[in-house]
Amino acid sequence: MLEGKALVQDSDMPVKMQIQAMTYASQALDLFDVCDCKSVARHIKREFDKTYGSGWQCVVGSNFGCYFTHSQGTFIYFCLETLNFLIFKGAS
User: Fold this and answer.
1) How many other CB atoms are found less than 10 A from the CB of residue 72?
2) How far is CA 41 from CA 15, 32, 63, 88, in A?
3) How many CA atoms lie within 13 A of 8 on its CB side?
4) What's the pTM?
C-alpha cells in the first residue's frame, strides 16, 4: 500500500473523501500494473460510484491536459508513484 505517499496538487473535496481517493488509487496500483492506466482509472471510478453514487469521472496518466466542469466539493488532482490522478463528479 502506498497511502501517505500521494501529493495533493489541488482539491475542493472534504479531507475524508480525499483520503478515500488516495486509498482507492493505492489499491488500484496494488491490483494493476502502473502502465495499465485504463484499469487503474476504472477501478477508482467504480469504487467512487459505489461509495458516493454514480457520475464520477477518473483520469489517470503521466501526461494529460484537461478542462472540465465539476460539482462543488467533488474534485481532486494528486500524484502517486509516477502517475497523476484526476477524480471529479460532473456538474449537473
Assistant:
1) 9
2) 21, 10, 14, 12
3) 18
4) 0.90
Residue whose grid cell is 460510484: 49
3 state SS of 46? helix
Phi, psi at residue 35, to the nearest 5°?
A: -80, -15
Residue 13 contacts residue 85 (beta carbons within 8 Å): no
Give the tens place of pLDDT for each residue, 13-59: 999 999 999 999 999 999 999 999 999 999 999 999 999 999 999 99
The separation between CA 46 and the C-alpha centre of its own chain, rounded to angstroms, equals 11
3-class DSSP state of 34: coil
